[in-house]
Design a protein that fits this description.
The structure is a single chain. The chain contains 8 helices and no strands. With 204 residues, it is mainly α.
């Protein structure tokens, strides 16, 4: 902002000095008049120079602020560009086919209230699953997604390790599920024998 207080005071003083000149009846020489006019002109010239200098300072400050704002904006844009873009959902390995992935679950569907980790009986798990799903009347894709939601532990790790898009129907999913559990779950006889041996060791 231009500070004009001192400048106005100097101009005002010069005007007062001119106003204080003697009247026509007084003895005023031409030299005195010229001297007063020259003083007034010098004051006005000095004032104009100071105003111009103040305007130049203000313009320089404006340019500096504009450059700083532009630098900050460019730095922010570079920071946004350097962030790693999120991986699209379809780019993640999913064992289901795209048709199953596109299946929309019913709004009120909460899924079966059972969990299979690999140590439970697979046939009992499928029976419970079908019993809880029988009233939904859902499509093949919904059955696939909700059966997947019951998997946990080692069985869930097996599922996510399948090739991308490998499962295309619910029947195929059930077959793969049965084959995997038959390989990973110990035979019933082994479980019974282990239980008997543990009981024998614990008996006095």
């Amino acid at each position: 902002m231009i500070k004009q207080g001192p400048i106005r005071n100097r101009v005002k003083s010069s005007v007062v000095a001119v106003g204080a000149m003697p009247s026509r009846g007084d003895n005023v020489t031409m030299q005195q008049l010229m001297e007063t006019m020259r003083t007034l002109q010098e004051t006005v010239t000095t004032s104009r120079g100071e105003i111009a200098a103040s305007q130049a300072d203000n313009e320089e400050l404006r340019r500096t602020n504009e450059e700083l704002r532009r630098d900050l904006q460019q730095a922010g844009e570079r920071a946004v560009d350097e962030r790693a873009p999120p991986i699209p959902l379809k780019a993640r390995p999913i064992p289901f086919s795209q048709a199953i992935m596109d299946t929309v679950l019913p709004v009120m569907s909460l899924g079966p209230k059972v969990t299979f980790t690999g140590v439970e009986n697979s046939e009992a798990h499928l029976t419970t699953f079908h019993t809880q799903m029988v009233l939904t009347g859902s499509s093949d894709g919904v059955y696939c997604k909700l059966l997947m939601s019951t998997l946990a532990g080692a069985t869930l790790e097996w599922f996510v390790s399948l090739p991308n898009g490998h499962i295309t129907t619910f029947d195929q999913f059930v077959t793969l599920f049965r084959n995997n559990t038959s390989l990973t779950r110990p035979p019933l006889e082994s479980l019974m024998m282990s239980s008997i041996l543990n009981s024998t060791r614990e008996s006095p």
